[in-house]
């Protein structure tokens, strides 16, 4: 349940449709991902408030996915099902949001288009590891998978270097799919959303850390207007401002589009602030997640 993952799939499919192609998004929810769904595995089970938050957010994302993406009629749970039943396409494209992060996808060869007719083209567009390095234990498997692709690109320069180091293949550094569309192209996804009239700074953080509090203290002292939070945590926060809990993807887009400024430590929070021409502060993740900051710093370096 990631705003970025959903919107990059929407953007790439819409971009290809605008070029005149007929596009289908493969409805692939692997069983290992389904079994790890937090809504049924959190502590206390059943009545734990966080479970209701996760279940409601899952419903909102599934609804947006069905409305926004040209999904295949069949949902696939395994690579074997893809290999046995999916066919009829001239090309298969994999990308982008951390599809090659082995801790998220188990190095699943489905994310290298290991299915379909042999004659079809297989393309990786803006594939992402989400980190500048992966354990070398995965190198032989990744090298094999990269060898099956006709063209490879990554949304991070470090990702291109990693592909080249692992496989010796050429990898092109490209834009994240969400940046292939301009701001106006996203307007139909939130045109019916109610806008907040008074000025506000949108805060979208994917990690609650002491650094977030420090950043907000500085911003509040510099720009004295209220904060609006997108926060999927049901527990109270010391921060001031209105909170949107279980924010639907369309509402999330609307909040960025209508904001006077954005504060975020999210890659796609940063990308959409840029796309919607919003002043923004982008700050880093901390602790074990610090390695993921290259996603943001490389994008900002490319834009000076």
Number of helices: 12
Helix content: 25-40%
Return the domain count. 2
Outline? globular
Structural class: alpha/beta
Secondary-structure element pattern, one letter each: HEHHEHEHEHEHEHEHEEHEHEH
Overall mean pLDDT stands at 88
**How many E strands?**
11
- Portion of residues in beta strands equals 15-25%
Which sequence of strands runs across the widest sheet? Answer: 9-8-7-10-11
Most strands sheet: 5 strands, parallel
**What does the radius of gyration come to?**
20 Å
Terminal Cα span: 31 Å
Low-confidence stretches: 234-240
Topology:
Blueprint: H1 3-18, E1 25-28, H2 31-35, H3 49-68, E2 71-76, H4 79-85, E3 91-94, H5 102-105, E4 121-127, H6 139-146, E5 151-154, H7 157-167, E6 172-173, H8 183-186, E7 200-204, H9 210-222, E8 226-230, E9 242-244, H10 249-258, E10 261-264, H11 267-275, E11 280-282, H12 294-302
Parallel strand pairs: 1-2, 3-4, 4-5, 5-6, 7-8, 7-10, 8-9, 10-11
Note the main attributes of this structure:
304 residues; alpha/beta; Rossmann fold; 2 domains; five-stranded parallel β-sheet; four-stranded parallel β-sheet; 12 helices; 11 strands
What's a concise summary of this model?
This protein has 304 residues and is an alpha/beta fold.
Structure, explained:
With 304 residues, the protein is of the alpha/beta class. The longest helix is centred in the N-terminal third of the chain and has 20 residues, at 49-68. The chain has helices spanning 3-18, 31-35, 49-68, 79-85, 102-105, 139-146, 157-167, 183-186, 210-222, 249-258, 267-275, 294-302; strands at 25-28, 71-76, 91-94, 121-127, 151-154, 172-173, 200-204, 226-230, 242-244, 261-264, 280-282. The chain has 2 domains: 3-179, no CATH class; 184-302, Glycogen Phosphorylase B (Rossmann fold). 34% of the residues are buried. The strands form 3 sheets. It has a 5-stranded parallel sheet with strand order 9-8-7-10-11, with helices on both faces. The model is unreliable at 234-240 (pLDDT under 50). 38% of the residues lie in helices and 15% in strands. The protein is built from 12 helices and 11 strands.
